[in-house]
Structure to design on (118 residues):
């Protein structure tokens, strides 16, 4: 069972930056894993995709993340990083790392809280 461990969340003022990291453990190579990325869930809201990196190096972003967030994947280190800049209060959420290859739902991390104050 692959375990994903996130780090890097915290409290930041609007306009600030945070860098979230996720490392996969108890795992063999992740090079063949189709997708590795980040989702988020606000209090009372649904979980939504933030940014995803594919096995062939493509990246996908939610509209709210474009121009502010950058996702990067390192297969050798088994990590995926989300660099978040110009954070807004509406970015406040629990951020989850996910690794998956459809049709499997894959693995989720435990989540890390990001709070952006105005």
């Amino acid at each position: 069972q692959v375990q994903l461990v996130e780090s890097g969340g915290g409290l930041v003022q609007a306009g600030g930056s945070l860098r979230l990291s996720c490392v996969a453990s108890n795992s063999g190579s992740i090079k063949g894993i189709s997708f590795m990325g980040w989702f988020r869930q606000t209090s009372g809201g649904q979980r939504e995709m933030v940014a995803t990196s594919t096995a062939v190096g493509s990246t996908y972003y939610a509209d709210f993340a474009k121009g502010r967030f950058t996702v990067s994947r390192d297969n050798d280190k088994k990590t995926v990083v989300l660099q978040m800049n110009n954070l807004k209060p509406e970015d406040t959420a629990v951020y989850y790392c996910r690794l998956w290859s459809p049709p499997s739902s894959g693995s989720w991390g435990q989540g890390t809280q990001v709070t952006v104050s105005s």
In short: The chain has a mean pLDDT of 94. The chain is about 0% helix and 55% strand. The two ends are 40 Å apart (CA to CA). The first strand starts at residue 3 and ends at 7.
